[in-house]
Amino acid sequence: MQPNIKYSEDVVPITDLKINPGRIVNQVDKTRRPVLLTSRGRGVAVVQSVKDYEERTEEQGFLRAVVCGLMDIEEGREISLNEVKKRLGLK
Fold first, then answer.
1. Same domain for 35 and 66?
2. Same domain (yes/no): 42, 58
3. Do β-strands 35-39 and 42-47 pair in parallel, antiparallel, or remain unpaired?
4. Whether residues 35 and 53 fall in one domain
5. Same domain as 81, residue 42
6. Within a 10 A sphere around the Cβ of 38, how many other Cβ atoms?
7. Is 16 in the same domain as 39?
């Protein structure tokens, strides 16, 4: 889980990224918090570490699969363990 955003540090004008991209990348790596880039006072992009991005993407995929599984059960689309084993050639 990522630490809470610190608005005084993690909201940065996009011009700062243009001037010193290494500082922004190092900040994201060091704090493990994403940085919100702004243009004319509006958020335009988020910079985050690849590791955090991959973890969040994996977690979202897992949660989607759980929800789909629960919906299948609710709608009666289920099969027994014996049927699964049979289909997989485990029996």
1. no
2. no
3. antiparallel
4. no
5. no
6. 15
7. yes
Same domain membership, residue 33 and residue 11: yes
Residue 2's domain comprises 1-48
* 29 CB-near residues (< 8 Å, 6+ apart): 49
Q: What is the pLDDT along the chain (91 residues), one digit of tens a residue?
A: 556 888 889 999 999 999 999 999 999 999 999 999 999 999 999 999 999 999 999 999 999 999 999 999 999 999 999 999 999 999 7
Among residues 40, 33, 45, which one has the least CA distance to residue 8?
Answer: 33
